[in-house]
Specification:
Strand 3 and strand 4 form a beta hairpin. The chain is an alpha+beta fold. The chain contains seven helices and 14 strands.
């Protein structure tokens, strides 16, 4: 548990209380210095299309921006969910969205990842992937003043005047003990995309086959059907554990024999009581 943060120069020392483990065992972590690797105006945690758009806009306003993403790529809201098309009536409302989906209104993960990288590089925004925000920093008045991130190089501090949580599960907002609207327990509808394999159905699931097919170069370049599942899953609350269980249930319910690309996330989260799907790059909403 974070007890105190002391600032000196280019490093931060964090003092920890003993961490209680099972059977009353404990681990004492001695005070240590964490290097301050960035001192910026805005730090954005998350690599969705909306996060990249926000970073570019802040940079256009002459803010010094740093973006970090847990996955090893950007465009997570499109690539990880396999929501690689625009529906009828959806129009790309930014240069980035147009670059991702093109005239055919279909994207590929490689195109999306490359365009996200190019957008940040062109805007002069520093970014790192494979980085997890583990806690928030606070100043002497208790205000949020940055984040601590961890990657293969260890733990590092990022000081910032503004912290933007663009994660799919409001990770940083939870660390900052931000309030959430109450969520009514019960069944919530999630969606999951599966490419290839046989269509499945169930009592708590409906499925729509899209009108286009997908070709997988590494799988013989054969056209594969695209299925979009709607799944009703019981959600007791909006905790991280409940969200993890809902994703597991979605993955199990939407698993198809012979599927080439099942999406990793359930993109349509309930709007009330928790974060929703970030559609910033898809339609500019």
């Amino acid at each position: 548990m974070l007890r105190n943060v002391a600032w000196f120069g280019s490093a931060i020392t964090i003092f920890f209380l003993t961490a209680a483990l099972v059977r009353a065992e404990s681990v004492l972590e001695l005070p240590k210095e964490i290097p301050v690797t960035r001192d910026v105006d805005v730090v954005i945690v998350g690599g969705s299309g909306g996060a990249v758009e926000a970073a570019c806009e802040a940079a256009r306003q002459r803010a010094k921006v740093f973006l970090l993403e847990a996955r090893p790529y950007l465009g997570t809201d499109i690539c990880a969910t396999l929501r690689l098309w625009l529906d009828e009536g959806e129009q790309p409302e930014s240069r980035l969205a147009t670059a991702c989906f093109g005239e055919q209104r279909l994207a590929t993960p490689c195109t999306v990842k490359a365009e996200m990288d190019n957008a940040l590089l062109s805007a002069g925004v520093e970014f790192l992937t494979g980085c997890y925000a583990t806690e928030v920093l606070r100043d002497s008045a208790g205000r949020v003043a940055g984040v601590v991130m961890v990657n293969r190089s260890g733990r590092q501090a990022v000081r910032a005047k503004v912290v933007v949580d663009a994660t799919g599960e409001a990770t940083v907002a939870r660390q900052a003990e931000a309030g959430f609207r109450p969520m009514r327990p019960g069944k919530k509808t999630f969606t999951r995309v599966v490419i290839g394999g046989a269509m499945r159905s169930g009592r708590s699931a409906s499925v729509k086959e899209r009108t286009f097919a997908w070709r997988a170069v590494k799988q013989g370049n054969e056209p594969r059907p695209v299925y979009e599942y709607s799944l009703d899953i019981e959600m007791p609350d909006n905790s991280l554990s409940a969200m993890a269980l809902s994703r597991l249930a979605a993955a199990t319910s939407g698993r198809c024999q012979g599927a080439v690309f099942p999406s990793r996330l359930a993109p349509a989260m309930p709007a009330a009581g928790g974060p929703g799907r970030d559609s910033g790059c898809r339609s500019g909403r």
